[in-house]
Amino acid sequence: MLIYVESSAFAIHTFVLQCHQSDTLARIRAHLLHMLYEMGREDHQFRLRFKGQFLRDAYTLEDYHISEHSVLKMVPMARRQESFVDVKGNPQQNMGSGQNMDIKISLVMEVAQLKWRENMMADFNGSKSLNRLFVLFSGLAAFWWFLSPTKPHQLGSFLPFGLIIYACGCGLIVLYSFLKGPSYTHKAGFVGPSSLWPIRFMVIYGIMTMANWAAAVGLATWACLSVLDFARDQGETYESYSLRRFWSWFLMFFWGLHALYLFIMWTMVWSLVHNFRFEIGDLLERHLIITRDVEKVIQAAKGGRVKEQRNAAFELATLTTTGDDGKFRIVAEGGLEALISLGLSRDEATQEYATEAIAEMLTVPAIQDQFVELGGVGTLTTLLHSNNERVVQEAATALSYIVSDTEENRQAVVADRGLEDIAHAARNGTESVKRYMAGVFLDLAFSADVRAQMAAMNTPTGALVDLCTSSDPETLRLALQTLELIALESSDVIFYQDNLLDHLMALPTNTMDSSIYLLAGKILLYYAENPEACEKLLNTDNLKDTLTQFAKTKDPVLQKVVAKVILSTFEDRKLAQKAKDLNLKDILAYIRSHSGDRDAWNMADEGISLFDNATEGGKYKPAGIPAASSGSMSSLMKLRDLAEGTKVPEDVKMPLGSTGVLPRDEDGGGRGSRVSVYDRPGTSAMGSHASVLSKSTEGTTKVQKDVQL
Q1: Which of 359, 362, 435, 589 has the fewest Cβ atoms nearer than 10 Å?
Q2: How many Å apart are CA 472 and CA 389, to the nearest integer?
C-alpha cells in the first residue's frame, strides 16, 4: 500500500512510501532515512505523528490502524527549545552530531547494498543484449548451411535443425527479458513490468538460462569431438575440406562462447536473487528500535547535556515499546529516577519523550508502586500544567493507570493539591485529556476518603460540571457518574453549582444517548428531593422539554426516574403548584401511554391522580404508591427490589457506574481510554445493573451487584 509523509522542513514536503501494514514504524523511518540520504540530510532527526499521536518504532502500521493513502507527519526532533543549550560547553559537542553512529553505519551499509544492486542490474540489462547477437548468429549459421554448396557432413544432417531450435530457444529468452525485465535505481526502486515481482522474474530467467546453457554445453562438446575426429575425405577438394573445417571450429567456439556467456548470466541472476531478498530497513530496523545499551542511555539521561538527555529520553521511550522485558531493564538500571528527573527538564522535547516513557512504563502494575514511592506522582501532576498538549496527554494517561490500581496510589495522587491539578487539566486540556481526567475523577471517587475530600471542595466538582459541556459522550458519561457519587456523599455540593442545571437541561440538544439521560435524571432526582433545590429546578428553563425527551426514550428505568422527579414536587404545596403551572402532568400522561413496564405505568397513573385530586394545604402525599417510592434515591432502589424480589442491604450505597481501561484508540485519543463497564456485552450502560460500593476491612473496593432497577 501507499502512504504519504508530509514535512515542512524540506522543499519537497511529501514523501511517498510503498509498504505493508505489517511493517514497523522503524522500517518506515528507514525508508525515509534513505530518501534523506539522497538529499544529503541523513543527520536529520525526526519522529512520525498520525492523528496527533506520535508513533513508536517498535509498533506496526496495523497497530496504529494506518491504512492505505494515510498521511503521516514528519516532526523534527530538535526543533524546540534550542535556547537551552549549555553555552559554557562546546556547542558542537553539546548539540550532538545527529543520528546515532550505529544508525549511520547501518544506513551506509544498506545504501552500499542498494548501490551494488543498481550497478549489477545495469550490468545485467546490458549483458542481456548480447544474447540477441547469439540468436542472430544461430539464425545466420542455419541460413548459411542451407546456402552452402559444401555441407559439413561430419556433423550430421541434424545440424541445421539444431541451429534453428537453438536460435528459437535463445530468442525466447531474449523475448521474455525484453517484455518482463525490470530495472532498478536507488531513488526510484524497481520499475518495469515485473517491478512488483523481481525475484519471480529472475527465477524464471535463471531456469531458462540454465536450460539454454545445458544445450550450449552439449552442442559445444559435440562440435569439439567433430574437430578432434576431423579428417579429409578421399578425393575431396581443398576448398571443401577448408569449408568443413571452418564449420567445425566455428560451431565449437560459438557454442562454447555462448555457454560461457550463459554461465556468467546465470551467476548474475542468482546473485541478484540473493540481493533482492534484502529490503530497506533490514539493518536499520534493529538499531532504530534499540540504539544503545540501557546502562549507557540512563547514564546519558542522568549526566548528559541537553541534546544527550533528549536523545536518551527518546531512546528510553522507544525501548519501553519493545515489551515488559525492556521496561524491567530500565527499572533495574535506575531508569525510573532518571525519567522522573527528565520529566521536569526545561527542554520541552526531553519532557515530552520522558513523559511518554513514563506512561508506557506504568502499564505494568508492578512498576506503579515503585514509581509512586519515588515521588513520581508529583511530577505527573505538575506536568498537567504544561503548555505542551502532548505532555499533558501523556501525564493524564499515566495518572489514569495509577488511580485504577490501588487505594494507596489514589491517596498519593490527591496529596499535595493533586485534585486541583487534575481539575486544571479537566478545564483546560484537549478533549482527549478531558476524557482521561473524567475517568481519573471517577476512579478517585470510588475511594471513600478521596470522595469525602472531593465533596468538601468546590474545585473538583466545578471541573466536573465543566466536563458536562463536553461533546464527547464518554467524557460526559464519566463526569455524570462521578457527580452522582459525590451527590451520594453530600448532595449539597452539587446544589451549589450554578451551571449544572443548565448543562443538564441542554443534554437533549447535544446527545441522544439514553444512558447519559439516565445519569442526568438521577442527578435531577437529588434536586427534586430537596425543597430549595427543587424550587430552583422548577424555575429552570426547558425543564418540561428535557423531562419529556427523557421519557420518550421508552427506557422503563428512566421513565420511573422522570416520574419520581415529578412526584417529588408534591412534597411541598408551593412546588406542586409550580409543577401544575408547568403542565408536568403531560409528561406523566405520556409515560402512562408509552410505559416500558408496570411500575412506570403505576407511578405515572398515581401522579396523574395527584394532579387531578390535589387538596388545599398540607403535603401532597402520593396515595396508593408504596412508601418507598416517595423517599430518596435508595428508596427508589428498594421499590425496584420489591417488584423483583431482590433485597438490598440497608448500609450499601449504590454509585451507578465504574470504569475499565481499554487499549489506545485509532484516532489518537490516547492509550487506556475509559469506558463504562456497562458497555460490555450483556449489560446496558447505567441501566439494568448498578455498581455497588462496599467496604471491606482492607479498604473500600468496587463490587458489582446485579440489581434490577
Answers
A1: 589
A2: 18
Local structure of 54: helix, strand or coil? strand
Rounded to whole angstroms, the Cα distance separating 421 from 516 reads 26
From residue 206, give the alpha-carbon distance in Å to each of 166, 173, 193, 268, 505. 17, 10, 17, 9, 77
Question: What is the grid cell recorded at 83?
Answer: 535556547
What is the rounded distance in angstroms from the CA atom of residue 701 to the CA atom of residue 705? Answer: 12
> With contact defined as beta carbons under 8 Å apart, do 410 and 444 qualify?
yes
CB atoms within 10 A of CB 69: 9
pTM over 0.85: no
Per-residue pLDDT reduced to its tens digit, 263-314? 999 999 999 999 888 888 888 887 776 545 678 888 888 888 888 888 888 8
Residue 686 — left, alpha, or beta (φ > 0 → left; ψ -120 to 50 → alpha)?
A: left
Grid coordinates given for 586:
403531560
Distance of CA 276 to the CA centre of its chain: 31
Count the neighbouring beta carbons within 10 Å of the beta carbon of residue 324.
Answer: 13
Q: Distances in Å between the alpha carbon of 340 and those of 51, 343, 671?
A: 27, 5, 20
List of residues 6+ apart from 110 with CB closer than 8 A: 30, 34, 280, 281, 282, 283, 284
Hey, what's the cell of 470?
463536553
Q: Which three-class secondary structure string do you get for 197-249?
A: CHHHHHHHHHHHHHHHHHHHHHHHHHHHHHHHCCCCCCCCCHHHHHHHHHHHH
The DSSP-derived string for 76-124 is ETT-S-GGGS-TTS-HHHHH--SS-HHHHHHHHHHHHHHHHHHHHHHHH
Over residues 206-248, the pLDDT tens digits come to 998 898 888 888 888 877 877 776 666 666 677 777 777 777 7
